Amino acid sequence: MVTMEELREMDCSVLKRLLNRDESGGGALGLLGGGKCLLLDCRPFLAHSAGYIRGSVNVRCNTIVRRRAKGSVSLEQILPAEEEVRARLRSGLYSAVIVYDERSPRAESLREDSTVSLVVQALRRNAERTDICLLKGGYERFSSEYPEFCSKTKALAAIPAPVPPSATESLELGCSSCGTPLHDQGGPVEILPFLYLGSAYHAARRDMLDALGITALLNVSSDCPNHFEGHYQYKCIPVEDNHKTDISSWFMEAIEYIDAVKECRGRVLVHCQAGISRSATICLAYLMMKKRVRLEEAFEFVKQRRSIISPNFSFMGQLLQFESQVLAASCAAEAHSPSAPLRERGKATPTPTSQFVFSFPVSVGVHSAPSSLPYLHSPITTSPSC
């Protein structure tokens, strides 16, 4: 078996030249001989979301993946949503794969249980004909030397909170004398390039929608009007913000709608009354499903962009249940993958003794009726109906 010390290394200047060639050629990142190169970001989802080398793909290797992998991860586990990438790797269509973490200076410094080490081992098992290289110094060094080849999110925490309008401005805006509510201040926030989150007030501001390039709206309420049905595409999810509502039954329909807008190169605003509970829940479910991240990571990601989100306790329970279903589906796909060891696939799958696929701090029955969902002891404070 090839050790980490024998892993090839790549200087940041070499990657910069490859990226330059990529931009001048207008195609995928290329190497000599016409082969293509894959760039894998082995950092956590939140770190990747804050900043990454352009063109890189973020691998998934959270604690649950590690625990289930028992020291050996598969392509299905680290690249669950990138079916085409997995197929190209197995077919040997990439001439090289470049992996990077935050700052590892040399291959010999990598720990055996590090994400990079686990990813490299998976690549060696499934892409034997492909060269694998470690970017020396990782994202930290590359971004400091060549920031023009990196995409970075604004320092969201440094953005000052909107200043409440004066009494005169409030009257001019048609607001009450107490000023604009916090959930209506500013504008819709970008969750992904095609996905925005906001309130009913934002959904009623055509100037805001047009400025953001919004083409469709997902109205997660039973009473918010659709103001511009002749101008935008609309879909309604008529749910209330209370502990009896089964919002999870709408998750897949909402995800399919968002994907349909994305495929048409449009942008969708997901909103409810205040953009705090119902619409935030839908955005969290989308991230969990499409990015294969845990609820904790998705919640932090969205909260960094819209700090006032607070799904009610029942919705959080349903999201935890959805998390277990999403991760279970990923593991099932991995078990039936071509790379799964024959001895493992030959074993009879035991019938679970528990209805839960994973153990969570708060458990919600997989087949529980919406009204029987228990309240969750969540650190997140509750908010007025939204």
TrEMBL record:
Record domain Rhodanese: where: 33-151
Keyword line: Acetylation, Hydrolase, Nucleus, Phosphoprotein, Protein phosphatase
A Pfam family matched in the record: DSPc
Protein's organism: Oryctolagus cuniculus (Rabbit)
Compartments where located: Nucleus
Reaction equation(s) it catalyzes: O-phospho-L-tyrosyl-[protein] + H2O = L-tyrosyl-[protein] + phosphate; O-phospho-L-seryl-[protein] + H2O = L-seryl-[protein] + phosphate; O-phospho-L-threonyl-[protein] + H2O = L-threonyl-[protein] + phosphate
EC number: 3.1.3.16, 3.1.3.48
Record-annotated Tyrosine specific protein phosphatases domain positions: 255-306
Residues in Tyrosine-protein phosphatase domain copies: 187-328
Record-linked Gene3D superfamilies: Protein tyrosine phosphatase superfamily, Rhodanese-like domain
GO biological process: endoderm formation; negative regulation of ERK1 and ERK2 cascade
Role, per record: Regulates mitogenic signal transduction by dephosphorylating both Thr and Tyr residues on MAP kinases ERK1 and ERK2.
Superkingdom, natural source: Eukaryota
Complex and partners: Hollow spherical complex composed of 24 subunits with pseudooctahedral symmetry, has a tetramer as the basic unit.
InterPro entries in UniProt: Dual-sp_phosphatase_cat-dom, MKP, Prot-tyrosine_phosphatase-like, Rhodanese-like_dom, Rhodanese-like_dom_sf, Tyr_Pase_AS, Tyr_Pase_cat, Tyr_Pase_dom
Catalytic residue positions: 272
SMART domains according to UniProt: DSPc, PTPc_motif, RHOD
One MF term in the entry's GO annotations: protein tyrosine phosphatase activity
Enzymatic class: hydrolase
Similarity comment: Belongs to the protein-tyrosine phosphatase family. Non-receptor class dual specificity subfamily.
UniProt KW Phosphoprotein keyword: yes
Protein name stated in the entry: Dual specificity protein phosphatase
GO cellular component terms, semicolon-separated: cytoplasm; nucleoplasm
